[in-house]
Amino acid sequence: MIRVQEQDFDIGAEIANLTRGRTDIGAVVTFSGIVRDVALELEHYPGMTERELGRIEDEAHERWTLQASLIVHRIGKLAPGDNIVLVVTASAHRGDAFAAAEFLMDYLKTRAPFWKREAGPEGERWVEARGSDDDAAKRWDKKSG
After folding, report:
1. What are the strands, taking DSSP E only, across 17-67?
2. For the chain, which has fewer Cβ within 10 Å, the N-terminal or C-terminal residue?
3. What is 2-138's CATH number?
4. Could you tell me which of 112, 117, 118, 83 has the C-alpha nearest to residue 5?
5. Which 3 state secondary structure label does DSSP give 132?
6. Segments making up each domain of the chain, as ranges
7. Sequence-distant (≥ 6) Cβ neighbours of residue 45 within 8 angstroms
8. Which DSSP symbol is given to 66?
9. How far apart are the C-alpha atoms of 5 and 30, rounded to whole Å?
10. pLDDT in tens, 63-115
């Protein structure tokens, strides 16, 4: 399940909704990202972004045995302390849930079609993926194993 939205989300409620009535789930892994230090404004291309996130979520389900997953990513203007992203993966066993959550977050940090602009004491700037984020994401390349 994919959602791109301006409104905030409740992490506990999202997990409860995803797992309600599911006795096949033995492990739930979550990652929640929070805006640090400076205000952010996130932009995206409606439709294209959701399709691309759906594609990468489908790939996670192909690579690991997942019973359910969720990606919620916020757009618009966000202040320090605001929720920005939530990734939830659910599987029968923890290994698949952990690996899939890491895979999805590495993708979101480096290749997802969002554009972030920071506004801080030094002014505004567009944010690019860090080299360390790119290095982390490379481990998932199908060519390299």
Report:
1. 27-34, 39-44
2. C
3. 3.90.1170.40
4. 83
5. helix
6. 2-138
7. 113
8. -
9. 18
10. 999 999 999 999 999 999 999 999 999 999 999 999 999 999 999 988 888 99
